[in-house]
Amino acid sequence: DYWVSPSGNDAATGLSPATAWATLVHAAGVVGAGDTVHVQPGNYQGFYLDASGAPGNPITFVATGPSVAITADNPVTPAGINIEGADHVVIDGFTVTGRTRAGIRAALSDFVTIRNCTAGDNGRWGIFTGFTDDLLVENNETYGSVLEHGIYVSNSCDRPVVRGNHVHDNFANGIHLNGDESQGGDGWIEDALIEDNVIYGNGAGGGSGISGDGLVNSVIRNNLLYDNHASGISLYRIDGATGATGNLVVNNTVVNAVNARWCINIDNGSTGNMLRNNILYNAHPFRGVITIDASSQAGFSSDHNSVMS
Questions:
Q1: pTM tops 0.85
Q2: Cα 292 to Cα 280: distance, rounded to the nearest angstrom
Q3: Spatial CA neighbour of 75 closest among 105, 45, 118
Q4: Are 209 and 254 in contact (CB under 8 A)?
Q5: Residue 149: what are its φ and ψ, rounded to 5°?
Q6: In degrees rounded to 5, what are phi and psi of residue 181?
Q7: Angle at 279 between CA 273 and CA 280, to 5 degrees
Q8: What is the H or E stretch that residue 185 is in?
Q9: What whole-number distance in Å separates Cα of residue 225 and Cα of residue 210?
Q10: DSSP state of 272
Q11: Phi/psi of residue 261, each to 5°?
Q12: Rounded distance between C-alpha atoms, residue 140 and residue 155, angstroms
């Protein structure tokens, strides 16, 4: 266990609060598998981590209270916290606001957990990941992303879990999952679980509360979406290698704003999707709640949903 404090010294041992280091940048250059960095309240420059933990022994950076804030980009990328090529990492409890592009970014890194963080008013994304299998993003608040999304799970990715997040007032999508075939890999996101999120006020610039481009064999359940200004839940293909196929959308409440599009959009060869037990309501003056194009109707099933007349 190591400690970091604004009153610390990077020349100290870091092994106790009394001998804490001063910077997260120094801590990121020292830690290895099984290490935990306890970060004391204060303002910090972000950090770039390229060291991996191990199964059962992750590298953990944990804030010791609600006032641990990242107020400057890390030295390498235009993000607050950046995890790059580093597996088995936990980021817990940080407030990251006003960063140039992403508040928290993880790329080419598997078994990453981002929890209990606040990412607000960042230039492009609150939380961004790319090529990150077995991702867990839970109990975070992401808001006010200036150009794009609150949470963006990008590129080929298997088994991501996005759970219990509070995602609001982002310019584009609230939660965006995009297989992005042009970047390599298989071009889809598979076996995702998107559950228990509260998503509202997003989409002034277009997008969806929950967006799945090339989302395959995944579950979207128990989410509350309201007052989003574009779409509710969208399953489609633009950048992915395939349509969004074989997904279960169950037990969600979607209440669209008066200037929104549809509560559920299914398009671009997104076949085999199932809607169950959803409450769907649209305040728009003439749009309904479910739209599906001809290329997506094979295998489509909708039952036990509350829909408008």
A1: yes
A2: 15
A3: 45
A4: yes
A5: -110, 160
A6: -55, -35
A7: 80
A8: none
A9: 9
A10: S
A11: -95, -120
A12: 21
Reported as a single tens digit per residue, the pLDDT across 92-143 is 999 999 999 999 999 999 999 999 999 999 999 999 999 999 999 999 999 9
Residue 184 burial by Cβ neighbours in a 10 Å radius (0-12, 13-18, 19+):
exposed
Give the pLDDT of residue 308: 84
Specify the residue for token string 């910090």: 44
Tell me how crowded residue 129 is: count the other CB atoms within 10 A of its CB: 28
**What is the spatial distance between Cα 190 and Cα 187, in angstroms, rounded to a whole number?**
10
Q: Which residues is 141 bridged to in the sheet?
A: 118, 166
Listed residue (19, 10, 72) closest to 47, CA to CA? 72
Task: Copy the structure tokens of residue 50.
Answer: 């390229």
Task: Calculate the average pLDDT of the chain.
Answer: 97
Which pair of structure tokens corresponds to residue 150? 């609150």
- Residue identified by tokens 């277009």 is 206
CA Rg value for the chain:
20
> How many whole angstroms from its chain centre is CA 180?
16
Matching residue, tokens 């509260």: 198
Q: State both tokens at 301.
A: 């099933």
Give the DSSP letter string of the chain: -EEE-TT--TTS--SSGGG-BS-HHHHHTT--TT-EEEE-SEEEE--EE----BTTB-EEEEESSTTEEEEE--SSSSEEEEEES--SEEEES-EEES-SSEEEEEES-SSEEEES-EEES-SSEEEEEES-SS-EEES-EEE--SSS-SEEEESSEES-EEES-EEE--SS-SEEEE--GGGSSSS-EES-EEES-EEES--TTS-EEEEEESEES-EEES-EEES-SSEEEEEE-SSSSS---S-EEES-EEEE-TT---SEEE-SS--S-EEES-EEEE-SSS--SEEE-GGG-TT-EEES-B---
Which residues, at least 6 apart from 56, have a Cβ–Cβ distance to it below 8 Å? none
Name the residue type at position 116.
N
How far apart are the C-alpha atoms of 180 and 191, rounded to whole Å?
16
Separation CA 47–CA 29 (nearest Å) = 9
